[in-house]
Every structure is written in C-alpha cells, then in structure tokens.
Write a structure and sequence with these properties.
By secondary structure, the chain is an alpha+beta fold. The protein folds into 2 domains: 184 residues, Acetylcholine Binding Protein, Chain: A (Distorted Sandwich), CATH 2.70.170; 120 residues, Methane Monooxygenase Hydroxylase, Chain G, domain 1 (Up-down Bundle), CATH 1.20.58.390. Helix 3 runs antiparallel to helix 4, helix 4 runs antiparallel to helix 5 and helix 5 packs antiparallel against helix 6.
Length: 353
C-alpha cells in the first residue's frame, strides 16, 4: 500500500513539473533573453517608426522668453521581429505585454526644443505577440519657439513640437506620420491666440560634438507644428485706445488762448506725465527684444507728437508774451489740422504695415 502511494506521488510530481514547464514556455510576457540594442531592421534598410501626437492643451505663449506651455501625448509604434512569441500568437493573439522601455530596442527619440518638459506616464512599452511595439508618453512643460515679433501685435507665429533621435540618422531611422491618430482638443486654455495645426514634417538636423552631447553627424527629426495668429482685442483695449486718448488730450492746448500760459503749460505737462505713467505700465505687456516692433513704432511716433505739441505750446506762449498774438493763433489753427493728419498717417501705417 505504501509503495502505491509513493508511485502516485512521483507521478503527480512529474505531471506538475511538466505542466509548470509548459506554462512557463508559453508565457506570453516573458522578455526574450537575446534583447540586444541592434536595430530590428537589416543594416541596409531603415527601421520604420510611426509617430502620432494628440495635443491636449496649449496654456501659455510667452513673448518675452519665447516659449510656450504644452500638454501633449506622443505615441511611437514600430515592429521588432525579435519580440514575436509564436506560442502566444496562437493562443493569445490580442494580448499586450508590458516591458520597461530600457529592456527593448527603441528609437531613442527626445523632444529637441524642450526647455522644461517632464514625462508624466511610466516609461514602459506594450508589445503584441506579433512583435508590434507601442510606446505612449504624455509630456507637460515648456517648449522653445523662435518668434519673429517685428509685426507685433499683427504677427503670426509657428509653434513646433520637434522630436529628435539622438542615435540614428535618416538612413537608419524612417520616421512616418500617423495622421489618423493625430489631433488636438477643440479649444485650448490660451485666450489671445487662434491656433490651427500645420501638419507634420520629417527632416534631419546636423550636430557637432563640440556643441551638443552627441557624436557628430545627421540625426532624424520629426516636427508637428501649429500656426498661431495673435488676437488683437487685448492690445486694442489696453494699448491703442489709451494711447489715442492721451494724444488727443495733448491737442487740447491748440484751442486755448496763447495768453493763458499757466493753463496751456499745465495741460501740456499733465499730458506728458500721463504718457510717462502709461509707458511704465506697458513694460509688462511688450516683449523685451533688441529691435523695434510695429507697435513700438506706433508708440514712439505718438510720443513724438505729444512732445511736439508741448514745443508748440512753448512757441505760442513766447509769441503771446512778445505781443505777437496773431502769429500764435495762426500756429494754433495750423496745428489743429497738421497734428491729426500726422496721427492718422501713423495709425494707418500701424494698421496696414
């Protein structure tokens, strides 16, 4: 009886060992042991990586620092034959295994124009039994954008999200655009811009080892961009209308009798002080750049007109004190016509330039 129990126990252990071995060999999510860092495609052919992006939000565009804040999801897809699991392909064709990104080959794509950008999701890939690899990552932070502000605030800008492979050239890595899975939210948080997607562009960038921490050569890039048109409403109410009212106020001296020196000088000085205070408040609204923008020219010419009106007051008051009232009145009447014409020309140039 005891021998029969021993025989049955041995048979049970053998069957359990065989079942465990089969389950282990057919486990669909075992990382292959030979996972090297060589590209999955043949050496003479580039490895194709499909890229899609979904922009969740663009929160802020900073003219001074020339950057913008973005919340974007980037999806990379490629095929690696070394990850094919034949056993799992038959039994679990739709299963998705999760591996650490560092445990499998990947195209080593990074965001080229990042300033302060952080990944939010775990750095893991999902792999199907047929060898299809998917790496999904969400990023939030600021990206740089080279802004040309000469036509500010009538300018339009390009806001790129550029991916760069730090290891592979265009001959080794073929980046393609997955238009089907690319998109953006209907409305962004930013209020003073109208943004529309331009599309994707594949290219390359040449790096020099003396300037960047990679070896010299050409590297594959992928760029998805937005076209932005600035909304003028904010600047109309905050800059253009107040500046126009200050300039109009400076012209009141043209209707004051030149002999009322205190009134003319006091009104002109008040206008200048008001303009100086207004210009101080403008510092937080205007971009700090080494060249003059369209709005800068408008403000500068308006400032010159206010200063010329003060000069006109000094001249007419001096003539009145010299008992040359008739000439002073003629100058005032001419100024009532000349100054509005000059301002209209300035305003037209500003709006049409």
């Amino acid at each position: 009886m005891r021998s029969i129990s021993i025989i049955l126990t041995v048979i049970f252990l053998l069957l359990s060992a065989e079942t465990f071995a089969e389950g282990t060999s057919e486990d669909p999510c075992i990382v292959p042991t030979a996972m090297d860092r060589i590209r999955p495609a043949p050496r003479e052919e580039p490895t194709e990586v499909s890229i899609s992006m979904y922009v969740l939000d663009i929160e802020n565009i900073d003219d001074i620092n020339q950057d913008f804040t973005v919340d974007v999801v980037i999806n990379q897809q490629w095929h690696d034959p070394r990850l094919i699991n034949q056993a799992a392909l038959k039994k679990y064709p739709d299963i998705r295994c999760t591996y650490e990104l560092r445990d499998v080959w990947n195209p080593k794509l990074t965001i080229y124009n990042l300033r302060d950008l952080k990944p939010i999701l775990d750095k893991v890939v999902t792999v199907k039994p047929d060898g299809s690899v998917n790496y999904l990552q969400r990023y939030f932070g600021t990206l740089t954008a080279h802004l040309n502000l000469r036509n500010f605030p009538f300018d339009s800008q390009k806001f790129p999200i550029t991916l760069l492979s730090t290891e592979y050239s265009p001959e080794q890595l073929k980046l393609t655009f997955n238009k089907k899975d690319t998109g953006h939210e209907k409305k962004f948080s930013i209020a003073n811009w109208k943004l529309t997607p331009i599309g994707a562009k594949v290219g390359k960038v040449t790096a020099e080892s003396a300037h960047v921490p990679v070896k010299s050569g050409d590297y594959a890039t992928f760029q998805y961009s937005f076209y932005g048109k600035r909304d003028l409403t904010y600047y109309v109410w905050k800059v253009i209308i107040p500046m126009t009212l200050i300039v109009l106020m400076s012209w009141a001296v043209f209707w004051v009798n030149p002999r009322q020196i205190e009134a003319e000088v006091g009104l002109s000085a008040t206008t200048i002080l008001t303009l100086i205070a207004f210009l101080f408040n403008l510092n937080s609204l205007l971009p700090r750049i080494p060249y003059l923008t369209n709005l800068d020219f408008f403000i500068l010419f308006s400032l010159i007109l206010v200063f010329l009106s003060f000069i006109e007051v000094v001249i007419t008051c001096s003539l009145a004190l010299a008992d040359r009232d008739r000439i002073a009145i003629i100058i005032d009447r001419c100024a009532r016509v000349v100054f509005p014409i000059l301002y209209i020309l300035n305003f037209s140039y500003f709006m049409l330039h």
